[in-house]
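Aim 2 progress update. The chain analyzed this quarter is reproduced below.
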Amino acid sequence: MLRVLVEDDSYLRIVPVLLDPSITGEHRAALNDFMAHDIPDFEAWLRKFQSEIPGLYPAKIELVKDQADLQARLPGAKAAIIESLPFGEKEIVLGRDLAIVHKFGTLSSNIDIAACARHNLLVRIQKRRVNIAVAEQAFMLMIALARRLCETNHITDSASLDAAGFNSRPYDRRYTTNSNYGRISDIKVLYGATFGALGMGEIGREVASRAAAFGMKIIYHQRNRMSLIDETIYNAEYVSFDELLQKSDFLSIHLPLSDLTRGIIDSAALQKLKTGAIVINIARAQLIDRDALNNVLESGKLGGYGLDVGYEEPGRVDEPLKKFKNVILTPHTAVARRDLGLIDMAEICKRIWTAVTAQA
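Predicted structure tokens:
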């Protein structure tokens, strides 16, 4: 039976269910529950997929916890799926039986591509559909807040507009159009605005590429600057953290949550933002200090705030952010349908099957 090493990642835990019949019933039941609202008969989907890869299923899947664990398990393994663990000369030598190293994602800087080429070890990447869905969510939030959609949805008659605090009056149609007859101020346009990306990893790059399509100026900040080639591809200018805050009309956050990043947007950082700036957080709520966020929203400084992953999940009934009309909260739905992740996993498995078959 083929041995496949898989870095232990929340999405990659799908792979053992796809390929390894020896997994625990608890693991299988958890994935069935995870898929149920989008794929009610996941077992039928699973049987169909397994029938399409008879040369790979069944396989022995071993989840790898860390670098030492990866190195210990490499001898005799036929494939490795890597998310963030380094894979270089030492790993290649230990994994002399490998037919393929598959990156889960598109940024393969953790894999020594040149060394793999010298050893004739195949490397493949997987563009994550979920990352694309998250980028779409970021733009949904940006556009909705820019156009004050939450405050104006269903408010089309004069009485409703006036009750919402707008001064609705028709214009003199002899000389003007009647556009924005609700006289709603501060409606923003993305074209020509400055899009600031805090983090330009895979999701940050997906969002930035869409910002470019909207005609936005792109600036970014992260711990390590991108290569000049990548900056040219994304037409992105590297700036300091303070410059990012001060120049962004729209600030989008794409950082992992860690001890280093928790609360990275604190009260001082929020005060450096432009008045009227819109902040989008499709990463983790805790990247922004909760009390500082509430205070800056109370002050009216922010033009809007969009959040997909809450401070608690499920969220609090008395969540303070709910009281602000210019705040959008969504219940961790940016990842969209479950089949996006399944398609990614299926493609990875089929590439592994092809590589192992070719090696044989």
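The chain is about 40% helix and 15% strand. The longest helix spans residues 339-359. These observations will guide the mutagenesis experiments scheduled for the next reporting period.
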